[in-house]
């Protein structure tokens, strides 16, 4: 796993193994092929966060990436669950890359997809990677594995849609990446209350010369003790811009932190218009130390 480092049709969702939560207690949130969001679970506040396994894909070196997302069933409440006894991954040597900030149901969407990946070795076999979240006496866990071809992800090329996940760099001369496992940068340093300028560079590969989809850039707090305000939190790179810049179009924001501490910011670049059956996005992770 990074220390900080065609898509499956039927994501695995967590089982309720803790205290009751209405009629959903002790039951699977949805069956295979079922809807990701049940209106019976949605509420303004007070509900849990459901960890979700998206699927897996193979790396060129023989290792595998397991992709995870989450479903905060609240439409208004933002939830923070620090790493530790209430937010952990097993085996424990793979722990640490998961989010600690869980945003509500996104407007016009169902949940938060492909937020992070866990890297497992080529000989991992039929073992599980289990992500557990605990809150208010309720414990929810989801297993991730590489044993089913039905959960194999396309990674970054989507031939049936003639599109690819955008490419990003987090520094002018840093590595370029594409796909859910993403790229990393930092640590940067700043002080609480002072805007920290952040710039990424994004474009597309030339796999599909007729590709004409704009690129959306979205910033999130991934880990950290306080709140982070982005200005802007979302912006769009027009098709004409990235076509004219094979080296990458700069996309700038500024992050302001309310409290000192160690943070990880996530930037997601995806096809303009949002996700369509998990297509097509790239993650970037920026470590920041706030004094």
Topology:
Blueprint: E1 12-13, E2 15-16, E3 49-58, E4 64-72, E5 79-80, E6 87-90, E7 101-102, E8 112-120, E9 129-135, E10 138-144, E11 157-158, E12 163-164, E13 167-169, E14 176-177, E15 183-190, E16 196-203, E17 215-223, E18 228-230, E19 234-237, H1 239-243, E20 249-257, E21 261-271, E22 281-290
Parallel strand pairs: 15-22
Antiparallel strand pairs: 1-3, 2-10, 3-4, 4-8, 5-7, 6-9, 9-10, 11-12, 13-14, 13-16, 16-20, 17-19, 17-21, 18-20, 21-22
Model description:
The chain is an all-beta fold. The protein has 2 domains: 12-151, no CATH class; 160-290, Immunoglobulins (Immunoglobulin-like, Sandwich), CATH 2.60.40. 2% of the residues lie in helices and 43% in strands. The protein has 1 helix and 22 strands. The protein has one helix spanning 239-243, and strands at 12-13, 15-16, 49-58, 64-72, 79-80, 87-90, 101-102, 112-120, 129-135, 138-144, 157-158, 163-164, 167-169, 176-177, 183-190, 196-203, 215-223, 228-230, 234-237, 249-257, 261-271, 281-290. A hairpin with a 2-residue loop joins strand 9 (129-135) and strand 10. The longest helix is centred in the last third of the chain and has 5 residues, at 239-243. Residues 5-10 and 16-37 have low confidence and may be disordered.
